[in-house]
Each structure stands twice: as structure tokens, then as C-alpha cells.
Design brief:
- Chains A, B: Belongs to the prephenate/arogenate dehydrogenase family.
- Chains A, B: GO terms for molecular function: NAD+ binding; prephenate dehydrogenase (NAD+) activity; prephenate dehydrogenase (NADP+) activity.
- Chains A, B: InterPro entries: 6-PGluconate_DH-like_C_sf, NAD(P)-bd_dom_sf, PDH_C, PDH_N, Preph/Arog_dehydrog, Prephen_DH.
- The structure is a homodimer of 345-residue chains.
- Chain A has 345 residues and is of the alpha/beta class.
- Chain A has two domains: 210 residues, NAD(P)-binding Rossmann-like Domain (Rossmann fold, 3-Layer(aba) Sandwich), CATH 3.40.50.720; 84 residues, 6-phosphogluconate dehydrogenase C-terminal fold.
- Chain A is built from 13 helices and eleven strands.
- In chain A, strand 3, helix 4 and strand 4 form a beta-alpha-beta unit.
- In chain A, helix 7 crosses helix 11 and helix 11 packs across helix 12.
- The longest helix of chain A has 28 residues.
- The interface between A and B is large, with 105 and 105 residues.
Amino acid sequence: MVDGPDAPLRAAVVGTGLIGGSILLRLRAVGADVIGWDPDEATRRQARSAGVPMAEQLSDAVAGRDVVFLGGPLPTLPATLVEVAAATGAECLLTDVGSTKAELTAYAAAQGLTHRFVPGHPMAGTDRAGLGAALPELFDGAAWVLCPAPEGLAAFRRLAALITEVFAAGVVPMAADRHDAVVALASHVPHLLAGALAGAAERSPLRDAVRALAAGSFRDGTRVAGTPPQRTANMLTGNREQVLAALAGVTEYLDELAAALRAGDAATLHARYAEAGTTRRALAARRYDEQTRSFRTDVAPDDEMTWLCGLGLTGGHLTACRTTPSTVSYTVHLPHPTDPAAPLG
Amino acid sequence: MVDGPDAPLRAAVVGTGLIGGSILLRLRAVGADVIGWDPDEATRRQARSAGVPMAEQLSDAVAGRDVVFLGGPLPTLPATLVEVAAATGAECLLTDVGSTKAELTAYAAAQGLTHRFVPGHPMAGTDRAGLGAALPELFDGAAWVLCPAPEGLAAFRRLAALITEVFAAGVVPMAADRHDAVVALASHVPHLLAGALAGAAERSPLRDAVRALAAGSFRDGTRVAGTPPQRTANMLTGNREQVLAALAGVTEYLDELAAALRAGDAATLHARYAEAGTTRRALAARRYDEQTRSFRTDVAPDDEMTWLCGLGLTGGHLTACRTTPSTVSYTVHLPHPTDPAAPLG
């Protein structure tokens, strides 16, 4: 980790809902010196009664810390970032856990914080909310996106080391705008589809029978429609342009399926489902090849930046990051180049 | 059951894929005299090597049976029904497990088989296929739709008794066209959405990163896109008009969500997700009140028919059916009238 056993990591978590709370619990479990703060007084009381140290003031929580994790609702993050930056030293690493990255990344740059703020997004969660749902093992094996910047590469390396070691997550390096385009399709549009399916069922005159006959496809397809509505609304509005662009691709495919169905064209339906099934088979059979990749840290960061951002786009992730005074060495997992999955009958 | 212990039920299953195979295995497990047949020679051999009796000819499988379950691909069912009807006696109960009901019901009526053919649809399955995926407990607690007809009510009662006793399923009585409208929304449209989401991801230039960051919402929302394409194509084309009508309701809701997002209207997004979430909460918290309902069987069947078809539409199901020479008595589970679920924050 960043520090030796004689000097445990001093961390703070601001905003201790599901994600922030899980980060806090994990840091505590590995012996870090960690304290939390949440704007909600009941949450602070709940945490203390569970033996989790919580500060009464945000500034008390973050003062003198090595790293601060920023959680809480997406729209609150810019203001929280500024407040935490003002209450911490120039060496204090800052990161967030928001589900979109471009806006906050640009905001942090405008505030001159790029050298110590590393935008982050742990891809884990449940449809529950709040500290009561937090789990220290929530991030085990999960993807955790970090957005590196040339002027923040040292901070990125420190945080990548911490996240792989403490949380057992795979760090996916990715530019902020690419992250937002990817999660639009990998997370946000699925929330739109789930809402549309559950909402249409709710309005249907056959509603009660639909609930009774809800097949696995309906249950799976509506699950995230049960997410707290405010969280979903924040997530979608925080990534509006990318979500609408990704939705256009999905409705185009849906229109093709509907047109084939309307025409009674079973051959085209079959072909479209064979194509779609490739993604499912790829999800089920993901294999990785492990490599090590090193860079000198006393030269211009262009090669390292290019390699990192390319790695995330090709589906790879980091499982370790070790630094010496003049080098950084990443342990990398790259998707195994497999044969195209054979179409099913 | 239909017969006493001295005369075990004589059953046959024609078409021993996932559903038919699971029916066969369960009947065997409860001690019925059951034999299967499948048009695929390899399937017959596979079944025999697992100790499951299989006939070499369809007519040998069904001759002298009390009940025959018809499985296999949807488009094959009309021809199979005619062939099985010709090879069985007038007292032999016939039922199918196809995922749409109106077409086959009308076909059976035109063939003069309504008095002994009871259209059926067990609402269970996995995204796997074939006898190798069959499980004797597949229907435990599942909904199993049966379509009663005035001139086939005696057959309906016999089959309802058998299915509740042997398979521990809840029998949902429903008119064939209502069934098709309900499953269009409860099963078929979710397959369209899953196909569109997985297909759009497959075509995206960000495909590899989308796979790597696939959140639970994406995994759940695409699961049934991995169903064998031919099965999905048959299911959709077999219920074309109802699927397109249900899809129109879902795309209308999706358009409302997209319009609110485009306008940056977080309040409307919140309201639409609060509405959609009601269906999720209702799925999670289903409770039933048990009742018994009896009818005389020596009078016109209008009351019993009306009650049965209404029961399915209101989300109820049968867990037992007992007959005497002059009465039929159903054990009924009706959805508990709950307060409207409180909206979440």
C-alpha cells in the first residue's frame, strides 16, 4: 500500500451511502485510519452506533488525510470537491465515486485540482441504498474506473495501487468522456429500458395478470426500475447527451427487430438474435491474459497515458501498480483473443 | 391424482426438450407410467442412456395413455396435435406447453378436439435448451396457464388436478387470447428489449469496453438475448399482433422518459420512475389469500367459466382441484389487497 505498517493510511469518506459506506467499511476492515462524514445527521448517528467513526463537521473529517473519497448524490459532487480541496493539503489525494465523469473532470480542471483529483467510478452496487446496505466486500473483483490525466499521473498511480490492494477491484483506466459513452450503454440505457417495461406494465389494463405471469425475462428486465427514482434521475440527467446517443443505437436495433416481426420475417429475427447473442456469450466466457507493463516516470507521460486509455477501451484492467523513484510497473489483464463464438441453432 | 395407487397414471410426453423433458422427469419421479418420444434420434438415445423410457415411434408412445403432453417447437404443434389425437382414444387428455395459445386453441377447435385438448403454458424455463437441461423440479411454485373452454371443462378439471398435485405448480386459468396479450408484455417484449440492448452493444465501436464495464443492469437486461435464436423467433412470430401491441405501450413509456431526459426535466423522470417502481415493489411483496370455491358440475358451465377466466386476469391461481360426481371444488389463491406501495425518495 501507500504507507508501511507503522504509518497506516489516513483516509476519509465524505458521503456514506451505499458506495461511500462500503468504501469506509472496507478501509476499516484492512486497518486503515478512516473516518466518515455525511450531511445527514441520522446517517452519522447510525454509523456511530455501529462503531464506525464519523466526524460532526466535514472539515474535521478530511483535515490531515492522505486520501479522501467523495460520495453522495451526483449533483452535490462539484461543491463537495471544492470544500474538501480547501480543507486538505496539497498532497492529499482526492477521488469520487460518481456514475458519470466528464462534467466533474472538467470542473476539477477549472478549479486547478487535476494534479490531485482522480475521477473514479466503482462499477458495483445493488438496487438498495444507504449505509445500511453497505458491504465491505462490495468491490471484490469489480471494475473500478479511474480517469488518468497527464498532469495527474502520479496521483493516478497512487490511487490505482490503493484500489487494487485494498478493494481487490480491477482498475479500468479510461478518459472521462469515453467512460460516459461506455456506461451510457453498459448501465444507463438499461435503466431506461427497465423503467419503460415496468412503467408500461403498471399502466396496462392487464397489470395484475402480467405481475402473476412475470417470467424471468420480465423480472430481470425490470429489476433496476426499483432503484430509488432520485438516484436514477440524477444518473441519467448527469449523462444526458451520451445516454440519448446510446439510446438511439438501441432503438434502431429494436426497430429492426419490430420490422422483421411485423413482416413475419423469421429469418431476419433469427439473424438479429444470433448477432445479439454474441455479446451474451462473450460476457459468460471472459478470459484474460496477464502481462506486466512498465514505464519510466522521469520522462514525458505521453506513452503511459496513451497506453492506459487504450487499455480501458479494449476491455482490459489493472490488478496492481508498483512504483519506484523512476519507474511504474502495472500488472495488466487483457481480454483473451478468442475465436468468434459459434452461432447457436 | 386422477387414478389410485393401484393404477398409476399412464402419461406420454411428445417432444422432450427443456420443458417436455422436465415434465417427463417429474412424472417419472412421482411414479407415473410415463414414456417419451422426440423426433430427434440423438435425443431419444440420450434419454434412454439416462434410463428414461423412450418409444421409437410417436404412435407407440401415445397409444393407450391417459394424458399426453405436447412439447417441441411452436410451429410443429398443430401437426403433432392431429397426429397424437389420431393415435389416442377419446378419453385421452391432451395438452401442450407452447408459449402462445390463441392459434393452437383455434386450430384444435376446428379439429373438433376442444373436449379433450386443454391448451397449456407452464411459465418456467431457463436460457438453456434440450433434455440435458431438464429438471424434475422446474415447475415447483411456477405459474402454469391452462385455457378452459365450456365444452372442455371436464378435461380442464382433470388436468388442473394433475398439474397442481404432480408438479406443485399454480394453475392460472385464462382465455387463450388474454394469455397471449399478457405474455406479450410479461415475456415476449422483454425478449425484444434484451435483443435490442445486446445487439446494439455488439455493434458499438465501444463494444469491448461495454462488455468490461457491464453493470448488473446490463447483465440482467440482456440475459434472455442468449436464448437460442430459433426459439425466440418462433415465440415472437407465434404472437405477432399481441407483441407489437404490447411493444407500442413500452415504446410510448420509453419516449416519455427520453423526452423528459432531453428536456432536462428531472421532476418528470422522477415521477415516471416512481410509477414504474410500483410494479417492482408489487413483484417483491406478493401475498395471497387462500379460499375454496365450489361449483355444481351438472349445470350449465357459464358461472364456472366466467369465474375461472376472471381469476387468471386478477392475478389469482389454483393450487388444488377436487371433483365428485356432481361438484368441483377449487383451492384458490387470490392476490392480497394491499395498500398502494409508498413512493420511494
